[in-house]
Write a structure and sequence with these properties.
- The chain has 11 helices and 27 strands.
- It has a 6-stranded mixed β-sheet with strand order 5-2-1-9-21-20, covered by helices on one side. The chain has a 4-stranded parallel β-sheet with strand order 13-12-11-17. A 3-stranded antiparallel β-sheet has the order 6-7-8.
- It is elongated.
Length: 423
């Protein structure tokens, strides 16, 4: 029999972390040797590797390949307690986190609940243009994509068939670019010779971007490379175009109606409800404004990291909403809390270290920026793959993803083309 868990000293300072994403996990791990007890709260029982979420959505990987149970991650860290629950508020006056009727008191609170989709005031578009932030989003998009080809196969009306075979992705950041490339490859290679009434390769894939170029955070030369790679795959790239309407029949762009039964949203995000929990000021996207120690003004015991925080700690401006930024924020907060518990001087103000940008377009096509170094094409594609394998959580996930990618590379086939119930 295994050793019975007896818990930790209840008199130790209590650190409550909301969110089991990159930032929350990093904060908990950073406190593994600190004299404190930790409660990690999340609505899901797993940590999600979001950078590969689009591959679940496009039938390249299964959900289990990019998700790891949180409890398993802290099996050997006895000062962590995991709570599965939905936070409904924070009572800062009494230092309590609210989970419905339940309350969890804290000495230090770390807010890392992540972000959700933003439709820029048009939430009525959400049912027709799903975004991609959760596993449920990915499996729903996969169902919509695969069903579109099935509906086209079974429909004799040419106009309706074109609608089913037209895919519109709104937003030209990394998620939009990767979705567009993956859908084009699925249509042109992954479904080859599997249908009798339609030719999947005839599918129309449009990527709509309101900005003058794709991948605005990348160097301009790499943005141009990404556009060329997408065009080579057959993706129609429309720049400086804004979406006027989204409905069940498609989209209206610049007054032009495009019939498309599958529209995907990758145009924007907004922060979680943390600002509402604390009744405090946020920026335009809902992020909490924090100081150089990642604490809220007037609340030195409350920290915010990742997509939840707005801190000017990178090149004189805000830190980007990227996984490395969330992880760095989590480890930094752990250092601050550890220093306070030991009555030591605090670390120097938080500064984000940017290691680069990566985006893949398709087979043997990617763009990578590491400071002054820029890579494109096959070499960038291999670098992108190696980086993602390295940062996946768990040996099982790394091996499984490598084997899936190897299979797809050798056969041009996707092994997870399952249409599951989206209800």
């Amino acid at each position: 029999m295994g050793k019975r868990f007896t818990g930790v000293d209840a008199d130790l300072p209590h650190v409550v972390i909301i969110g089991g994403g990159f930032g929350g996990i990093a904060a908990a791990r950073g406190l593994r040797r600190a004299p404190c007890r930790i409660t990690l709260i999340d609505e899901k029982n797993y940590h999600l590797f979001q950078p590969l979420l689009y591959q679940v959505a496009t039938a390249s990987l299964s959900p289990a390949d990019i998700a790891t149970p949180i409890r398993g991650m802290f099996r050997e860290q006895s000062n962590v307690r995991v709570v599965l629950g939905r936070v409904t508020g924070v009572a800062s006056a009494t230092r309590e986190v609210l989970l419905g009727q339940a309350r969890i008191s804290y000495d230090y609170l770390v807010l890392a609940p992540g972000a959700r989709h933003s439709y820029f005031g048009r939430d009525d578009w959400a049912p027709f243009a799903p975004g991609l932030k959760r596993l449920e989003d990915a499996t729903d998009i996969r169902r919509r994509l695969l069903l579109a080809f099935e509906e086209a196969e079974n429909n004799d009306d040419a106009e309706k068939r074109r609608g089913w075979l037209t895919f519109v992705i709104v937003g030209g950041g990394p998620t939009g670019v990767e979705l567009a490339g993956a859908i084009a490859e699925l249509a042109r290679h992954g479904l080859d010779r599997e249908f009798r009434s339609i030719e999947p390769a005839s599918a129309r894939v449009l990527l709509v971007q309101s900005a003058p170029r794709l991948l605005p955070t990348f160097p301009e030369a790499l943005s141009a490379d990404a556009s060329r790679a997408l065009l080579k795959l057959g993706v129609e790239v429309q720049l400086k175009r804004k979406v006027d309407q989204v409905d069940a029949e498609g989209v209206v762009i610049g007054g032009e109606r495009i019939r498309a039964r599958t529209v995907l949203w990758a145009a924007g995000v907004t922060a979680s409800a943390a600002g509402q929990w604390l009744q405090t000021d946020t920026d335009a996207t809902g992020r909490l404004k924090v100081g150089p120690a990642l604490t809220l003004p007037g609340m030195d015991d409350v920290f915010a990291i990742g997509d939840t925080a707005m801190v000017e700690a990178w090149r004189g401006g805000p830190v980007p909403g990227l996984a490395p930024a969330a992880k760095q924020g989590g480890y930094y907060v752990a250092k601050v809390i550890t220093a306070r518990l030991a009555d030591r001087a605090p670390p120097s103000p938080f500064r984000y270290r940017h290691f680069g940008n990566l985006a893949t377009i398709g087979r043997q096509a990617a763009v990578v920026e590491f400071g002054p170094l820029q890579f494109r094409g096959p070499l960038a594609w291999w670098i992108w793959g190696a980086a993602h394998i390295t940062f996946l959580v768990g040996a099982r996930n790394r091996v499984t993803v490598m084997l899936e990618w190897l299979w797809a590379y050798l056969t041009f086939r996707r092994s997870t083309r399952l249409i599951t119930d989206g209800r």
